[in-house]
């Protein structure tokens, strides 16, 4: 059973919580994206968020502090922060409708699918490398937008389309992985009976 108090028991969970709380200043600063200095602050916050994301996983494994709460809060923090940034960039016209919808729909499908799978398995599946690479590719596009990289440049276009490929690949990957875990659980149940 996942308990809220478990959120405060490990260094890695605290880092994930910090990253989740970063959603508040992101929301506020993105209201005035082009105010003097805001883009630089937002870029710095994105880099800090990325560092905490890498660090929380490292600490959880190094100190053997992988918890059920950590498996929940880490991807939720990623999805909420990325979701808020994407929503705000969409509202100010920095990203197209289709890109916004792809990211939001992917996250909604993975989140609702994750709830279904967790109920079936009785535990939370941790994030995998494919999911992390997808979030990284989207984060690079966000960094380019905040840094005002030319959207017609080869590097921007390359990462933009790479992130789209990763969105669909990770959605397929999560589906296959979930079905495999459910099948394995069903096979174990049959063998016990």
Structure explained in plain terms:
- The protein is an all-alpha fold.
- It has one domain (4-192): Four Helix Bundle (Hemerythrin (Met), subunit A), CATH 1.20.120.1760.
- 78% of the residues lie in helices and 0% in strands.
- It has seven helices and no strands.
- It has helices at 11-21, 23-30, 38-62, 68-91, 97-121, 129-146, 154-192.
- The longest helix is centred in the C-terminal third of the chain and has 39 residues, at 154-192.
- The mean pLDDT is 87.
What does this entry show, briefly?
This protein is mainly alpha-helical and 193 residues long. It has seven helices and no strands.
Label this structure with key terms:
193 residues, mainly alpha, Four Helix Bundle (Hemerythrin (Met), subunit A), 7 helices, 78% helix
Form type: globular
Can you tell me the residue ranges where pLDDT is under 50 for at least 5 consecutive residues?
none
Order of helices and strands: HHHHHHH
- What's the CATH architecture? Up-down Bundle
Secondary structure: number of strands: 0
CATH superfamily: CDP-alcohol phosphotransferase transmembrane (TM) domain
Instruction: State Rg.
Output: 18 Å
Share of helical residues: over 70%
Distance between the termini: 25 Å
> Strand percentage, roughly?
under 5%
Number of discrete helical segments: 7
